[in-house]
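Fold this complex.
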Amino acid sequence: MSPDASCLAFGIPLPDSSLHTCLSSDSVLLAAVGGPKWDAVPSEKRPERGLLKPRSAMELYTNIRPARMFADLSAACPLRADIAAAGIDFVVVRELIGGVYFGKHTTEERNGEQVATDIMAYSEHEIRRIAHVAFQMAQKRRKRVTSVDKANVLDTSRLWRKTVCAVAEEYPNVEPRHMYVDNAAMQIVRDPSQFDVIVTENLFGDILSDEAGQINGSIGMIPSSSMGDGSRGLYEPIHGSAPDIAGQDKANPIGTILSAAMMLRYNFGMAEEADAVEAAVETVLHTGYRCGDIMDQGGTLVGCREMGQRIRELI
Ligand code: IPM
Ligand code: MG
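Structure:
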């Protein structure tokens, strides 16, 4: 049962039975969660809990979010043509079960007013293991890791930078770079071609991966995989639940479909099948079919259902 459905039916985002199902599965495919009806609800009763809980219970500390421009979607890229032409092909490696998302959250009354606190904590081992993932991935790509932090302000970021520097020494063929998160947000739109692998903590990764998704045409296109030390993973599109178009057959299903392709590739070692799904997506885009978020001049507008059907027919 989805976290949204569970909130509506039981008032809690993830019944123990659903968590147990996730924990006893080889792989989990998750759609988007959340909506304005839960804006005023305490965090443990929000649908987002139903997403954060399996991530942490399954110990999925690595979240991989590829940002690659599809050739046929260059018209949907909001960047200047010469910037896009330099190429956009990088991966955000987001730490997924640490930092402020999983620190203590409190809201209390102090001196007649409400005071809210969110603790952001990172330990060396949490940073080290995600840094290794990033450097190993860069070894198979263009051999550059950009570690993003806010080391000019935050202690967690200073520890992050020191730890990433130490890990980098084990990968002499990979070029390490360090960038403050505000600068990284700016560089992603100024010159995305400079990035190969970006590694960063949970909150920064959440924000930068939305930005990375959008410069590729639409966040609706971007899949993600979340993994831990074992082979088990959780796969989900990076977009939210788009409550403004819910139930109207307008959402772009491609982020979810490409997440299923990542599941085949990374979880089940089914590279050929993953290639087939990705090729079907590319063919449908090349033929001109577009959901509303990636619609361009000359494109044929289709709904979520038709887009899904057209992709399925080609697999
Ligand atoms: C994401 C989402 C989630 C996150 C929300 C829904 C809790 O934005 O997967 O990027 O912040 O991790
Ligand atoms: Mg997000």
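The pocket of 3-isopropylmalic acid (ligand 1) is lined by residues 33-34, 48, 51, 206, 238, 240 (CB under 6 Å).
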